[in-house]
Design a protein that fits this description.
Layout: H1 2-56, E1 62-64, E2 67-77, E3 80-89, E4 95-106, E5 109-121, E6 126-133, E7 140-148, E8 154-156, E9 165-167, E10 188-189, E11 195-199, E12 208-210, E13 217-218, E14 223-227, E15 233-235, E16 240-249, E17 255-263, H2 284-293, H3 306-310, E18 318-322, H4 332-339, H5 341-355, E19 359-365, H6 369-376, E20 385-390, H7 399-407, E21 420-424, H8 425-437, E22 443-449, E23 457-462, H9 467-473, E24 483-487, E25 494-496, E26 509-514, H10 528-532, H11 539-544, H12 562-566, H13 573-583
Parallel strand pairs: 10-23, 18-19, 18-21, 19-20, 22-26
Antiparallel strand pairs: 1-2, 2-3, 3-6, 4-5, 4-7, 8-9, 11-17, 12-14, 13-16, 14-15, 16-17, 22-23, 24-25, 24-26
Helix pairs in contact: 5-8
């Protein structure tokens, strides 16, 4: 009997426990429900407050992947809306990320803008976001942040004593299928030209004062003009007689006055041309003087006088040789590297010795195996020169990107301030010929390509050669009815009105392409030009508000052409921006 009573009490006790537990569960569920309702209401209120905050130009702090984004503001200045914020690393370790995106929602339309790229923040460090908005601030309802972490790929050349291990950081470049001529294809030697035209104005607009007249006899390397802005002389590329002065087109599309020289084909040089066995045996002063007298300037498109780079009093630690050649048709540098790797290495070594440079890197596309193998055959002799494979992405050959990629350095004005000099690989070969033979820069390899030509190839041409004569002599044209002619690469080149174009030191490529007569459509505000811009600009807004060019940082534009390439409306964004820059020259 006692056992039954005892069991009955235990059952009652269990039931009471179950009842109490059920009540507790019901209470917890009620609390969760109430909390959820309150939270939703708060979220709605937060979104409303965010919207209000935007109007008040103050935004709440955010935490994104252990980064705090604070002091976010939207301000309006001269009808231009700017977004600013501070990004702080709250972790106890270094924090690396490829890109921080800020996404703005306006009228249910989302625009995603790259805010910061390729950043390393130490614990407690911060970076400032500064963005220009292409939207009506009053209609912006939501702002989000996303982080993209970068990945590293390691490359190790085990077949090379002088190996290098590198990290390639993906920084939002664009991979474009190229149409390059194989570097192993024979370079067509076409230097036997009857008439040459030596322009008296550079593509940058710098002028030369002519020092010859009709009837003057000149040699290869004779000074025919003196610069009004620097000490680089204008040289004749042939021996012969000055027969007149004519206007011809140059690589920027301008019609300029040229000295006309008739070639006598005697190839007589001005001064002594001889072979120097050891090209490291120059003083710095002798080296600079030789660069001047031989007329050496940048051959990758800028035509910058080379001697100026070496006149610096800054200690130069690194020489970067640019063999990336990221323009999709251009292959003149590839042809030069394929043909003359030994001479290029010898010249790099000489420059390092003369300038007391510690280390040099030759930047080549990572998938350019044929060129990399050419250099690997000889590079073991030079322990301080290394090959640095670069990701095949455009515009990875831009000087600032190369220096940052290889050395992790940034600079404001000139590279020598961070102990770096960069040279194009074709310019290096021109320096080699100056050091070895005292030979002036009077010829170069030019890519002549395009789908409207019979035989795309790399041509070795005299400076001053008229492209029209080369095209007619080699029967290049398929059909002249409807083509586009471009001086320079497809991305950064300039459309030209005529094939009456003169070969200059800066001209790398001439393209003749089929004209598909594509018409520009209105901008659809897709934001793609902003997404691909390597300088984090908003190209469409620069076009829309040209008077605000300073606030929109137009001076940062490198004219890479990605905005035009990506535009679904086929707007030539780059040309519009170039025009704005030209119209405001001196005020940027």
């Amino acid at each position: 009997m006692k056992n039954k009573k005892s069991k009955s009490k235990e059952n009652i006790k269990k039931q009471n426990i179950i009842l109490v537990a059920s009540i507790i569960i019901i209470i917890i569920c009620a609390i969760i429900s109430i909390t959820t309702i309150v939270k939703n209401n708060k979220n709605e209120q937060v979104e409303k407050n965010d919207s209000d905050a935007i109007h008040k130009e103050v935004l709440k702090d955010n935490i994104v992947d252990n980064l705090t984004i604070s002091n976010a503001k939207i301000t309006v200045n001269n009808d231009v809306s700017n977004f600013t914020a501070i990004v702080t690393n709250n972790t106890s370790d270094d924090y690396h990320f490829n890109t921080l995106y800020v996404t703005f929602t306006t009228n249910n339309i989302t625009s995603k803008i790259s805010a910061l790229q390729d950043i390393t923040l130490k614990p407690g460090e911060y970076e400032t976001i500064i963005l220009t908005l292409d939207s009506d601030v009053s209609e912006t309802t939501k702002i989000d942040y996303t982080i993209e972490r970068w990945r590293s790929n390691c490359y190790f050349f085990i077949f090379l004593k002088n190996y290098c291990i590198i990290n390639i950081r993906r920084i939002g470049m664009v991979t474009i299928k190229d149409n390059k001529i194989s570097p192993s294809k024979k370079v067509i030697d076409d230097i036997d030209i009857q008439i040459v035209y030596i322009p008296l104005v550079t593509k940058k607009g710098y002028k030369y004062v002519k020092t010859v007249s009709v009837g003057t006899y000149v040699y290869i390397g004779s000074i025919v003009g003196k610069s009004t802005v620097n000490e680089l002389p204008l040289l004749s590329s042939v021996s012969g007689t000055v027969v007149g002065f004519e206007n011809k087109y140059i690589s920027n599309g301008n019609l300029v006055e040229c000295i006309v020289i008739e070639n006598d084909f005697k190839e007589k040089y001005f001064g002594n041309i001889g072979k120097k066995q050891d090209i490291t045996k120059y003083s710095k002063e002798e080296f600079i003087s030789l660069l001047k007298s031989c007329g050496i300037s940048g051959m990758s498109g800028n035509d910058f006088p080379t001697y100026i780079k070496y006149e610096t009093n800054n200690q130069i630690k690194y020489l970067i040789v640019n063999g990336v050649e990221c323009e999709i048709y251009s292959s003149a540098d590839n042809a030069r590297m394929y043909k003359n790797p030994e001479e290029i290495l010898e010249c790099i070594d000489a420059i390092m010795e003369i300038m007391h440079i510690e280390k040099s890197y030759i930047a080549i596309k990572e998938n350019n195996d044929i060129i990399i193998k050419k250099f690997l055959k000889y590079i073991n002799t030079y322990p301080n020169i290394k090959i640095y494979p670069i990701q095949d992405a455009y515009p990875m050959g831009y000087e600032r990107f190369l220096i940052n990629e290889i050395l992790g350095l940034s600079y404001d004005t000139i590279t020598s301030k961070v102990g770096v000099i960069t040279e194009n690989v074709s310019t290096i070969y021109a320096i080699y010929e100056a050091l070895k033979y005292h030979k002036p820069l009077v010829e170069k390899i030019v890519t002549i390509s395009g789908d409207s030509l019979n035989n795309p190839a790399n041509y070795k041409l005299k400076i001053g050669t008229n492209f029209r004569e080369v095209a007619e002599k080699n029967h290049l044209y398929k059909d002249l009815k409807d083509t586009i002619k471009v001086a320079g690469g497809a991305m950064m080149g300039t459309p030209i009105k005529s094939d009456d174009l003169i070969i200059t030191k800066d001209l790398t490529t001439i393209l003749v392409l089929n004209n598909d007569n594509t018409k520009e459509m209105p901008c659809i505000k897709c934001g793609k030009c902003s997404e691909v811009c390597p300088m984090n600009l908003i190209p469409s807004l620069i076009i829309k508000k040209p008077k605000s060019f300073r606030e929109l940082n137009i001076n940062k534009c490198i004219e890479c052409g990605l905005c035009s390439y990506i535009c679904p409306s086929k707007i030539d964004v780059r040309e519009h921006i170039k025009k704005i820059k030209e119209e405001n020259n001196g005020r940027i």
